Amino acid sequence: MDKAQRTTACMTLTSTIEDLTRRGFTEGFRVADGGLRAIGTGQRLRTEDLVIREYHRFEGVSDPDDMAIVYAIEGKGGIRGILADAFGVYSDPETAAVLKDIPIRAAAG
């Protein structure tokens, strides 16, 4: 497991999002126009200005519909937020296309 991927064996999706929010990833992101848009501010962020600091995969043990992945993303100017997507066969192709252009770099520490 790389440093950016975090273990979520004992955490729920909700508790992971709450933890990330407590740690400063307060903005919600959505994919828009080949990049991300901050839901709260409407700010558009280009992939070259973003870094994935960590991600969490949730694998549905009994139900494949429970598979999800949460990304903690940081942008230039200090904006930090969360993007969630389905994981596996239900993942969004547009989200995958945008995320492939964002480097994964675990935060120091």
Question: Would you mind describing this structure in some detail?
Answer:
The chain has 109 residues and is α/β, with parallel strands linked by helices. It has one domain. Helices cover 16% and strands 35% of the residues. It is built from 2 helices and 7 strands, in the order βαββββββα. A 7-stranded mixed beta sheet has the order 1-5-6-7-2-3-4. A hairpin with a 2-residue loop joins β2 and β3. The longest helix has 10 residues. It is globular. The two termini are 17 Å apart. The mean pLDDT is 88.
Number of strands: 7
User: In the residues, how many domains can be counted?
Assistant: 1
In whole angstroms, the N-to-C terminal distance is 17 Å
Spatial order of strands in the largest sheet: 1-5-6-7-2-3-4
Largest sheet: 7 strands, mixed
Helix fraction? 10-25%
Secondary structure class reads alpha/beta
Radius of gyration: 13 Å
Q: What's the order of the H and E elements?
A: EHEEEEEEH
Gross morphology is globular
Mean pLDDT, all residues: 88
Number of helices: 2
* Stretches with pLDDT under 50, minimum 5 residues: none
Strand fraction band?
A: 25-35%
Question: Which structural traits does this protein have?
Answer:
109 residues, alpha/beta, 2 helices, seven-stranded mixed β-sheet
Helix and strand layout, with pairings?
Elements: E1 5-6, H1 13-22, E2 27-32, E3 35-38, E4 44-45, E5 50-58, E6 68-75, E7 80-86, H2 93-99
Parallel strand pairs: 1-5, 2-7
Antiparallel strand pairs: 2-3, 3-4, 5-6, 6-7
